[in-house]
Amino acid sequence: MPTYTAPTRDTRFVLNEMLDLASYGNLPGFENATQDMIDTIVNEAGKFCSEVLAPINQSGDEEGCTRHEDGSVTTPKGFKEAYDAYVEAGWATLAKPEEFGGQGLPHTLAMVVEEFTASANQAFGMYPGLTNGASAALEAAGTPEQKEAYLPKMITGEWSGTMNLTEPQCGTDLGLIRTKAEPQADGSYKITGTKIFISAGEHDLTSNIIHLVLAKTPGAPDSSKGISLFIVPKFILDENGEPGTRNGVTCGSIEKKMGIHANSTCVLNYDEATGYMLGEENKGLAAMFVMMNAARLGVGLQGLAQAEVSYQNGVTYALDRRQGRGLAGPAEPEAKADPIFVHPDVRRMLMDAKVFNEGMRALCLWGALQVDLTHEAQTEEERQLADDLIGLMTPVIKGYGTDKGYDIANNMQQVYGGHGYVKEWGMEQFVRDARIAMIYEGTNGVQAMDLCGRKLASKGGRAIQAFFKMIDDEIAEAKTNEALSDLATKLEKALGEQKAATMWFMQNAMANPNHLGAGAHHYMHIMGIVTLGFFWLKQAKTASAALAGNPEDKAFYEAKMTSAAYYAERFLPDAGALRRKLEAGSDNMMALPEEAFSTAA
Amino acid sequence: MPTYTAPTRDTRFVLNEMLDLASYGNLPGFENATQDMIDTIVNEAGKFCSEVLAPINQSGDEEGCTRHEDGSVTTPKGFKEAYDAYVEAGWATLAKPEEFGGQGLPHTLAMVVEEFTASANQAFGMYPGLTNGASAALEAAGTPEQKEAYLPKMITGEWSGTMNLTEPQCGTDLGLIRTKAEPQADGSYKITGTKIFISAGEHDLTSNIIHLVLAKTPGAPDSSKGISLFIVPKFILDENGEPGTRNGVTCGSIEKKMGIHANSTCVLNYDEATGYMLGEENKGLAAMFVMMNAARLGVGLQGLAQAEVSYQNGVTYALDRRQGRGLAGPAEPEAKADPIFVHPDVRRMLMDAKVFNEGMRALCLWGALQVDLTHEAQTEEERQLADDLIGLMTPVIKGYGTDKGYDIANNMQQVYGGHGYVKEWGMEQFVRDARIAMIYEGTNGVQAMDLCGRKLASKGGRAIQAFFKMIDDEIAEAKTNEALSDLATKLEKALGEQKAATMWFMQNAMANPNHLGAGAHHYMHIMGIVTLGFFWLKQAKTASAALAGNPEDKAFYEAKMTSAAYYAERFLPDAGALRRKLEAGSDNMMALPEEAFSTAA
């Protein structure tokens, strides 16, 4: 059975050293995030995830969720107990506002717990993950009464939440929604329609489930501008605010999926269910996007999480399994064969995984810090910069992070050879689970269009200019440091490819928007490559400074320097190839008629 | 449910036009392969695969194989009937030698049937596929009596075959084999040991199964030079040559796998089973490699096959599913939304699939022709050239073909959005089934080392020089043709990257063989990219010549020209990036000690 050990050392490096969280101690929420507190949370969360969540990951996949005849759903063996323990330990409330019972710590720390949880058991992590999204939307758009009624119990995890967007005929294009909301005399609505792919839609973990549902009021505009958001609790609250009457929302079936079997992905049937409007009529999409953006960062993190856990097991196997001999001669002549760790092609896959994971972790935690700064930074200018940067980076974290996370999980499965294909070893589950992250919360193609069609041009390109400046500044500084200058030069070249690609879009996309669509996915990858390169430069800067102090765990910092060099030589070159593809435009891509795609005749 | 329609038009284009099979009519076996015969086989095989094999692909995945308490195994519903129909129709005997009951047609035509079969039902195709490998080894290494006893019934498909290499402690490194062969007074052997991952190891499709088993005789050298190959029939033949006494080989269990559920992947326990040596003692590996090389081409073809069937269903969905609007304005203003086919990012994935599939098909069928020419070409020089080329290309077809085939299957799943993740739509099965092809018959890392560590340097680099010359010649000719010169120039650049990478290996790998290992996978991909570029240039040449004749189906040839241009702009650029990675060598890749791969502390 695969195992998981939280990457505590690397996480502490990013938080305490690279990001230097302690230096933000003057900001609200950060005052309690001392290094001691950070270390404790990292270590304890790691322990919890390894010991409680990881052991039920494989059994959860095998058993899956069960829908009973009455429409109720039970989660796999051990999930209820693990969920109670998760709530009991307070992991759900970490970064939630104190006024609703949260601990008020920075979001950055919640991201750490989210990564570890998703590595240990992605299907499990989705239950609290969905609740987070729903509570964020309630916090942002709810009336004081709504917040009071729902938030405290959602924040502790006593109740859970869901997002209901998709319908059979309607995925990305939310203008196609058909679910109806009929206003009632008491100000509530009757919600009727079918929602599909509802993660954590029905289960036995919590005493109530608060569904947030997109629907149309009578006469609403027939487009995405006619969508409203509704709170639809599984149990309507009684006069004491406790779960009362069962509402008209039922699980029609559980989807049979490729992976994340332990999360119940439901078809939810709404049959005149009682709902309450959340936020303004016809402005439901805006409120939903509060959830969506948080959720997209969480999904990007899942890419990292599956890459990390599969990497750990890849390393274990590579050190244990013996086949063949090192190319330069036997590494262990007394044994009948060497560990496959000695083979360069195995090492290539392990190193690719290592540098992706550590670079991605630095990016995700930096991203989480930007979310904190969006709210808590001292000046409007700083808050705006953080908001610009995280808005720009969200599709990259989600899209690039999950594309690459999936690649890594596949490579780690590959390390196992034939055993990687057999369920018992657990590697194929990581691949199946990782696959969904490229799809949900907007496919990675949708992320690419969000990046290129919306974020790049937004506010006159202010965000991308800030991104370029941030990296230019880091490069300029690094070039004056002998230990970093080679890295800086290579990153500058890759950044140059991104700048050229950006310019190409500016010069060509107006005349033909298909040129933008044709290059968007390439651009997202170029930007992901450059961004991780930037975070490797930052990590190398931190490591190089630490090495100057002759630290006790010198090997850790030396490995950072080698890894940074490996990243530069093995990941950055793709930026140039992707730019060439992007500059090919859309002419040949869009030239062929439908009939040309038929292969028979 | 997904569907499959054989790509008959494209196959006929490759066979009749690009390869001009009719021009080989003077060679043995080819005399009957007239264009009429070719067209009939292509069309009938396509029909059979679409109508008989494709409909039981999804149900076969769901049901899987069942092992009963007595060790017997039943295949999923409909498989036995489909197998009987396959045998009845004569698909098994197509390219088999007439002296053993085959039809004696070129191997090239058998490859067509193999592609269609693997697209329609990969798990099914493995049953006759394994028999092919086993009968090829028997043909190459068997005594006249052995051939007489086993070949006729294996060739018709009345009996099937297997390859038994892997053991729990022994995968790639066959020197670690422990299965023992004790010589008996009558010249036979008693085989004892455990083999794992034996595809088609036990089933109910045939009345006998002829296992070919690697084992060690007493006192054999303790390395891969001490391995012999044995024929171990499930039922020992009686005096009439019919299945008689049940032999001591039993299925201990069926592996639970990620995919290809309808193929029974068995643990086979040999308990003093009666076996007969095939070929010379201690030379078992050589005989096994006859099977292996054929099998590797077949596996490369599976990469294409899964890419093709997933592509077809991707196209269907993209034309059917409506979400959003074209970037340049509504394509179908009267409808509520446009088909997702209008979105450039969807088209990018479809075009990537189309040009990979058509390029790969041209490569595979050309490769099959080389196999034919190895035996049948008129001069020793031609036979040797064909042998050099197919030996060189086998790891590329297997390694690059299955890596990319898997990518394509994943992209086609992506086209489906959330529905791609749900079993009912069938796309996730294509991904799960395609995944094995990167692993079995030698992982793609092993293929890369076969290419770079063995094939490149073999006979003073004769094969790679012949490969370069073949492409150089085609480029030189194309440069004189206005319709092809741009394509030729781009291919020349990519080929230049491969030549430079080859040179880099020559200059660096002697000093440090790890440099070779570190770049082998990159090299295999560079060569795959260049090779498909070469076949796109050849297809464009053929199409451009056809267009000059103002043919009836002009659109088909025009699509070839556009596709060739798309391939050049979207696939070739990666060759340069891969070369840069390769030239980074192994220093950073191999620098870190074991401890540095631990993520906790």
Automatic annotation (TrEMBL), chains A, B:
<keyword id="KW-0560">Oxidoreductase</keyword>
<dbReference type="InterPro" id="IPR006091">
    <property type="entry name" value="Acyl-CoA_Oxase/DH_mid-dom"/>
</dbReference>
<feature type="domain" description="Acyl-CoA dehydrogenase/oxidase C-terminal">
    <location>
        <begin position="282"/>
        <end position="451"/>
    </location>
</feature>
<dbReference type="InterPro" id="IPR013786">
    <property type="entry name" value="AcylCoA_DH/ox_N"/>
</dbReference>
<keyword id="KW-0285">Flavoprotein</keyword>
<dbReference type="InterPro" id="IPR052166">
    <property type="entry name" value="Diverse_Acyl-CoA_DH"/>
</dbReference>
<dbReference type="InterPro" id="IPR037069">
    <property type="entry name" value="AcylCoA_DH/ox_N_sf"/>
</dbReference>
<feature type="domain" description="Acyl-CoA oxidase/dehydrogenase middle">
    <location>
        <begin position="163"/>
        <end position="271"/>
    </location>
</feature>
<dbReference type="GO" id="GO:0016627">
    <property type="term" value="F:oxidoreductase activity, acting on the CH-CH group of donors"/>
</dbReference>
<dbReference type="InterPro" id="IPR025878">
    <property type="entry name" value="Acyl-CoA_dh-like_C_dom"/>
</dbReference>
<dbReference type="InterPro" id="IPR009100">
    <property type="entry name" value="AcylCoA_DH/oxidase_NM_dom_sf"/>
</dbReference>
<comment type="function">
    <text>Involved in the assimilation of dimethylsulphoniopropionate (DMSP), an important compound in the fixation of carbon in marine phytoplankton, by mediating the conversion of 3-(methylthio)propanoyl-CoA (MMPA-CoA) to 3-(methylthio)acryloyl-CoA (MTA-CoA).</text>
</comment>
<dbReference type="GO" id="GO:0050660">
    <property type="term" value="F:flavin adenine dinucleotide binding"/>
</dbReference>
<protein>
    <recommendedName>
        <fullName>3-methylmercaptopropionyl-CoA dehydrogenase</fullName>
        <ecNumber>1.3.99.41</ecNumber>
    </recommendedName>
</protein>
<comment type="similarity">
    <text>Belongs to the acyl-CoA dehydrogenase family.</text>
</comment>
<feature type="domain" description="Acetyl-CoA dehydrogenase-like C-terminal">
    <location>
        <begin position="467"/>
        <end position="593"/>
    </location>
</feature>
<dbReference type="Pfam" id="PF02770">
    <property type="entry name" value="Acyl-CoA_dh_M"/>
</dbReference>
<dbReference type="Pfam" id="PF02771">
    <property type="entry name" value="Acyl-CoA_dh_N"/>
</dbReference>
<dbReference type="InterPro" id="IPR036250">
    <property type="entry name" value="AcylCo_DH-like_C"/>
</dbReference>
<dbReference type="InterPro" id="IPR009075">
    <property type="entry name" value="AcylCo_DH/oxidase_C"/>
</dbReference>
<feature type="domain" description="Acyl-CoA dehydrogenase/oxidase N-terminal">
    <location>
        <begin position="41"/>
        <end position="158"/>
    </location>
</feature>
<dbReference type="Pfam" id="PF00441">
    <property type="entry name" value="Acyl-CoA_dh_1"/>
</dbReference>
<dbReference type="Pfam" id="PF12806">
    <property type="entry name" value="Acyl-CoA_dh_C"/>
</dbReference>
<keyword id="KW-0274">FAD</keyword>
<dbReference type="InterPro" id="IPR046373">
    <property type="entry name" value="Acyl-CoA_Oxase/DH_mid-dom_sf"/>
</dbReference>
